[in-house]
Amino acid sequence: xxxxxxxxxxxxxxxxxxxxxxxxxxxHAVVSAHRGEAALNVLGKGAxxxxxxxxxxxxxxxxxxxxxxxxxxxxVEVIVLTTSGPKESAVASIKxxxxxxxxxxxxxxxxxxxxxxxKALARRRARPPEQECLxxxxxxxxxxxxVTQHMRTGLxxxxxxxxxxxxxxxxxxxxxxxxxxxxxxxxxxRRNICPGCGVRRxxxxxxxxxxxxxxxLDARGNPVYSEIMATPITDDEGRVVAALEMxxxxxxxxxxxxxxxxxxERLERSKKMEAVATLAGxxxxxxxxxxxxxxxxxxxMALHSSLDAPQLQSLSQMRDACxxxxxxTAQLLAYARGGKYQVEKRSFARFVEEAVPNLRxxxxxxxRLDVDAPEDTWLVEADxxxxxxxxxALLANAGEALSEAxxxxxxxRNVMLDAEEAAELGGLSPGAYVxxxxxxxxxxxxxxxxxxxxxxxxxxxxxxxxxxxxxxxxIVRNHGGAIHLESQPGRGTTVHVYxxxxxxxxxxxxxxxxxxxxxxxxxDEPLVRYIAEALFQELGHQTVFAETGxxxxxxxxESPEPFQWVFLDVILPDMHGSELFKRMRAVRxxxxxxVCSGFSRxxxxxxxxxxxxxxxxxxxxxxxxxxDAMARAQAAEADGDRSAPSEED
Length: 649
Known about the structure:
phosphorelay sensor kinase activity, Rossmann fold, phosphoprotein, 22 strands, 5 domains, Beta-Lactamase, PAS_4, alpha/beta, 21 helices, seven-stranded mixed β-sheet, five-stranded parallel β-sheet, His_kinase_dom
């Protein structure tokens, strides 16, 4: 029975059997259901014209069955079987649900049953076509709702007046129920038709398909991106009566594209800064070699020349100028993230309290300076000469922002960063950090300026001619930390610096060693070799020089000299310092090596120190610093301490 038209609902086999036989003989298709739930399943298929139901059912009240049946198919006719005829209240209730006739049980009169069914079918077929059309449309709408609610695509029918006539569940879940509102008003909070509206192109330009992308807000006020395609809906004469919009949410895709674009822009900036950093490092390397020569000659002149007071003063000023140039190359190296070389663990709070007063000159006398450095602030293992450069740059920027009035606040705190917080700060590792904050209430920066704040030589003011925040950024990152800036126009700027905390005090300074011996000095710059020989002679050492790594190896293999010290330049013309170190140790395992360089990555120096080098001498160096490097090497050899720069971030 593929297309039943008569449904008999009863749990009594005799009633079902009698009705089925009688109606089948009349040519009707009959299906039986013993429970109300089963009857509703049959009605849901939409093929039943007349339903004959018992007044009493085992699983539901007959009135509930009738109401549910009319919701499923308003056109179905109903005949109710009773034992003693209908009472007035039952008649009113059931007829309110659309019942046509009552029949008394038990069913014995076949003619009575067939006549009741005939009248029910006649009533059904006499129903006005418009009403039947509406019922058919209602069923189709329900079917459409069922289908479209399982789609990921939002659908809407837009009338010629731009009002939303219908939308599927996907769109209602995303934006809410439009309740016959204009589409531009409900979906986009506009008073007029949206620019580039696809529906408008369908209505006014006759477009067969119009596609556009749109940004709006969902029902919760969150940004949402959608790709929208509009197509015309026409009547039998081909006139456009409405438009169908297909809305595909692409928020995740759009946000991913924006994030990818941001990453690409960040990568481009990183490449640009890396190129500048490489150039800065190369310049600093050359400068350091030249400054080594100048400082060495000045130290020798001060020791041996019979200069009068004005000449000594001139020499002292020249030496001061060289030391200032050395500070500049240190900034270049800091920006290049070339390394940190004089590392110690000490109280960060004490450092702030001591350094800030000495940097007060960056601020106008009328600017108020507040310092808050609690004693319980954790220790930080760092090159504090470089951290002083960071603090100097931050105070200089604050001073420029304030000009003649305002307040600068410097504070430090202990913080524990979780994984999410650490990742937001540029991929730090979770853990304990010391947080340095420098805040001013100056003019602030807009978003575009804030984006470029760490670029070298970038400034919105004439005074900004140096590396500034760029050098500070390089130093902090090289210490395993991060810098984060917050600023708004008219509301000042806050610079947050995060540095990894340490909890073990650093070693005490060692005394300068005495004694003499032969030194092997590996250096490819002739003038540096010349001044080194003179300085070592003053310290009582003889010097043997090698210009290349191969020459140094040949000297070690052929010379019987037991070299007291070997000074190893990391950057040589024929091989890297780490390779030469391994080969030298293979020739003479007990060699006492001091690493010497004007520009090397901290991790390169650290690797050499961990491999057995005893200390590090940074170019340019003075006679006193040369002595100090040997003192530290001697102390390291005595206690096995290879204190040195930490690995670069």
